[in-house]
Design brief:
- This protein is of the alpha/beta class and 398 residues long.
- Helix content is 41%, strand content 17%.
């Protein structure tokens, strides 16, 4: 099994009298990770109960049980694993009862984005859970499982087909598997848990986003493309972020007049899904969107790394009204667990005390670039790096 970087972070939080909640898109390996943890715990002499909520009788047992029933179900287990928890009605109430009644047990729960979309998981478990997100394989994980040389050789494959576990583990079948994933399967949680009256609009919106990766989002333009109003576009984008298909970068600013402040860009967590949506699996040399493909790949890898490691790091793009721009800006706030010296607010406005790194992404390794003059003037202490195929592993896996 390819070792997931999130595993040590989960293990550090075992037996703190809280539920460990692992959420992510479908098919990113949540069940595999739970079974690996269970196998390791069993090998270490711990007793485990693994409950698969795909099973109807298991769902029934976990639906509003009494503490006595839960005691009989979990017995003397040290670990209680609950997989596909989104299938259980009012699962948060059940989890709260387990934690409060059996604090000596470690409960580890996996679920798709439906756990968030159903809006039932957070309030009952306030102060009783650790939240973790799992993403498709990162290049960093793939390098650790294989070698840097192998990943360099597979760079174009990763750009085109992405890094979902099924895709990585089944070379030669990428198109078929991505076709299945990029259909309604990945976002059927939206249809099941939210009032989406015209599901086809979700696909239209995703295709529009796929075609403008790396560009600032225009909600008005997206609304006209989909034939819906701006408020609905914003709602659908929020749902697609909650289902771990896309994410956004805000604009970075320290309230300098020429800087953009409210703009956002949207990216896909996985290049393969993006390419499947536009039905383009051509190699980079035969594409007109290679720059966008390269940018999405690098931004997604870095964001997966930052969010998976739970570091207090801000991720942004930068642009001025005069069209000077930088693909990616990272702000190290210098502290974890909410203790921040300096930092940036959610709209991208920075505070003093943080360090900046700016990155420009170029597929053509022969070009020499300097930081935009305005950025160099405003942020003279920022680190500047141009990321190309020659040095990209330092950026995504270093």
């Amino acid at each position: 099994m390819i070792q997931r970087e999130i595993l040590p972070l989960l293990q550090e939080r075992f037996f703190r009298k809280k539920v460990i909640l692992l959420v992510g898109a479908r098919q990113v390996g949540k069940t595999t990770l739970l079974r690996a943890i269970a196998a390791d715990a069993t090998a270490g002499g711990r007793k485990c109960v693994f409950l698969n909520c795909d099973e109807p009788d298991t769902r029934l047992q976990l639906t509003l049980p009494t503490s006595t029933q839960l005691g009989a179900l979990t017995g003397d287990a040290d670990f209680v694993f609950i997989d596909e928890a989104q299938r259980v009605q009012d699962i948060s109430i059940t989890l709260k009862l387990i934690v409060d009644t059996f604090p000596e047990k470690q409960v580890v729960v996996s679920g798709s984005s439906a756990l968030e979309l159903s809006n039932t998981i957070n309030e009952p478990l306030t102060g009783r859970k650790y939240d973790f997100s799992l993403f498709p394989f990162s290049v960093r994980e793939l390098v650790a499982a294989g070698s840097a040389q192998t990943e360099k050789r597979l760079l174009e494959t990763r750009l085109v087909f992405g890094t979902y576990p099924d895709i990585v583990n089944n070379p030669g079948h990428e198109r078929e598997l991505l076709g299945e994933l990029a259909s309604t399967y990945l976002y059927k949680d939206i249809f099941a848990f939210q009032d989406v009256r015209k599901p086809a609009l979700i696909e239209i919106l995703l295709r529009a986003l796929a075609l403008q990766v790396g560009s600032e989002a225009s909600y008005g333009e997206l609304a006209r493309t989909c034939g819906i109003n701006v408020l609905t576009v914003r709602r659908y984008l929020d749902l697609l972020e909650k289902t771990y298909i896309i994410f956004h970068l805000p604009a970075f600013s320290r309230n300098i007049r020429s800087e953009l402040k409210k703009s956002v860009k949207f990216y896909f967590y996985d290049n393969g899904i993006r390419n499947a949506l536009i039905s383009n699996f051509n190699p980079p040399a035969l594409r007109t969107d290679t720059g966008a493909l390269w940018e999405n790949f690098l931004v997604a890898e870095r964001v997966k790394r930052v969010r998976g490691a739970r570091t207090d790091t801000g991720t942004y793009f930068w642009r001025t009204h005069e069209q000077q721009e930088i693909d990616f800006v990272e702000e190290d706030r210098g502290a974890l667990d909410g203790v921040v010296s300096g930092g940036t607010s959610s709209d991208g406005t920075a505070r003093a005390g943080s360090s900046l790194s700016a990155y420009e992404f170029k597929w053509d390794a022969n070009r020499t670039l300097r930081p935009p003059s305005a950025f160099a003037t405003y942020y003279p202490d920022a680190k500047w790096t141009v990321v190309t195929p020659a040095n990209y592993l330092d950026f995504v896996a270093g």
